[in-house]
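Q: I'm writing up a methods section and want to include an example of the input and output format. Could you take the sequence below and give the corresponding predicted structure tokens, formatted cleanly so I can copy it straight into the document?
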Amino acid sequence: MMGMGYFRSTTKGAAATSPTAGKKKAKKLAQEDAGLRESLLEPSPATPEGGGVPKGYFAVYAGEESRRFVVPTGYLREPAFRDLMERAADEFGFAQAGGLHVPCAEEDFEALLRRLHRKNAAAGGKGKKAVR
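A: Here is the clean output for your methods example:
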């Protein structure tokens, strides 16, 4: 069975103010970024051929080499992501064959996804995590 979401509890208290807690938090964020990057770039396990997208997600192609990302549909509610979708419609039009292409560098798109992931996680873990 595929887990499509998770909840993250925030840690508060005296331990969060120590210098070692800051290093631990930075290391944890780096690990989460690496995991998010891997999960966004991996093909979906929902289909045997790996070309499909599970319910609640959609495929986006970014960068000069059109790298494929599978992202939660909930990101469409975010103003930054909507702005990117409007730019994609202006540049490529609405009738795009073979998937949704966005006019942005791969690194910039990954940074946007990390920000949205952290924002949704900080809001109580309501958002979906990228598929592994």
